[in-house]
């Protein structure tokens, strides 16, 4: 399958093995996926060569300390190799898509093959022809909602969670700072909730678009923004100010505090500067809130990966329920995302798609479209070179190639002349292909069963998560393979 990646700050489209469907996952053929202009542009810039490395070092000094410690422990040459490997690796992009279910994990009973679904999650809802997504990050698409509209679901849930954090009530005056993709959707959600919406952005075109989509008052931001908000609210100030802008400047947050009424709320959704003054908080007793992505459940492995839902009586709006509600709003035509779509590109036009983000127009909505696939075209193995002539060397397949395996197991196997690294197996196609190429493996795959049925594989090296060791050991033994496994053998 084809998938879009960033590599050293550049956009590349690679042919990689399709993912395997986990027990609590659904395998989906993407029809559309949505570029998140702000998030993905930032990741591109942060990955560009020396500038990218310097940026990461400045923003995360802990990485510098780790590199220094590794240099002391392992030597400078190995440390440089590890850093270079990190900067050269393929990084997946995308976290909001829609498509059709191809397979369903054995633990899932409420989704079936052929269902139309919206998908979420960085590392899951990628810009790829086929994705595997945990159950709680998938929602069925209702009624006649189109795939292109449903591809906005993740972004819609983020916008919705910001509004929920503000606890907006009917008739509230709500200021939306930042009228990009999130802000345009948020303005419509807030109007549907009965709020009086004041939209602010530095781009005139976006201000006009927000007005067209239903915002009550819109204007281009500047030094007089606070005065305008006070004027439009009869001198009282806004009940809530929600910041959807993305900028290192602290000015939006500072202005938001001045715009809010006494005992009002300021909610930060976008990544903005946070050098704030205490006085407005104290004098007005403002509530300053951060909104976490799509909602409760985000970044909780038990919820997202294991499928453990939060009881609705205790957590009314989880990230999945936010996603479903946004789809319902699309169905009821309370939110118009069609007007936000500026471009649609094929996956082969990936580089061109990202180039549009840096044009003067600065598009809001950019979609990828994907061609038809059938189950028969699911390929989970990529042959990187012709099968080797049989020798006395021991052919090893490495299952699981995380940090430790790449730092120790694989280099050691490469050094020992009587071992041949025949295959690399990892969960994600991008990782497995890159590592397999680096260690001159014959093929790579996302399905460990491929190496178990390969008669030329003599030994299996298991370096997966601990809880996966035992089942793979049993299957490998039944397949007649010699086994080397990291501790523990089982848990």
List keywords for this structure.
18 helices; elongated; Quinone Oxidoreductase, Chain A, domain 1; alpha/beta; 35% helix; Rossmann fold; 491 residues; 22 strands; 7-stranded mixed sheet; single chain; 6-stranded parallel sheet; 3 domains
Task: Describe this entry's structure for a reader.
The chain is an alpha/beta fold. The chain folds into three domains: 2-152 and 301-369, Quinone Oxidoreductase, Chain A, domain 1; 168-290, NAD(P)-binding Rossmann-like Domain (Rossmann fold), CATH 3.40.50; 381-485, Rossmann fold. The protein has 18 helices and 22 strands. The protein has helices spanning 37-46, 49-59, 61-74, 76-88, 147-150, 153-165, 181-192, 204-212, 225-232, 251-259, 278-284, 301-304, 319-331, 350-355, 403-415, 429-438, 449-452, 469-478; strands at residues 2-7, 10-15, 25-35, 91-92, 96-104, 116-120, 130-134, 138-140, 173-177, 196-201, 217-220, 238-243, 260-268, 287-290, 341-346, 365-369, 381-383, 394-399, 419-425, 443-445, 459-462, 482-485. Helix 6 (153-165) crosses helix 13 (319-331). The chain starts with a strand and ends in a 6-residue tail after the last strand. 44% of the residues are buried.
List the helices and strands and how they pair.
Blueprint: E1 2-7, E2 10-15, E3 25-35, H1 37-46, H2 49-59, H3 61-74, H4 76-88, E4 91-92, E5 96-104, E6 116-120, E7 130-134, E8 138-140, H5 147-150, H6 153-165, E9 173-177, H7 181-192, E10 196-201, H8 204-212, E11 217-220, H9 225-232, E12 238-243, H10 251-259, E13 260-268, H11 278-284, E14 287-290, H12 301-304, H13 319-331, E15 341-346, H14 350-355, E16 365-369, E17 381-383, E18 394-399, H15 403-415, E19 419-425, H16 429-438, E20 443-445, H17 449-452, E21 459-462, H18 469-478, E22 482-485
Parallel strand pairs: 9-10, 9-12, 10-11, 12-13, 13-14, 15-16, 18-19, 18-21, 19-20, 21-22
Antiparallel strand pairs: 1-2, 1-4, 3-5, 3-7, 3-16, 5-6, 6-8, 17-20
Helix pairs in contact: 2-3, 3-4, 6-7, 6-13, 9-10
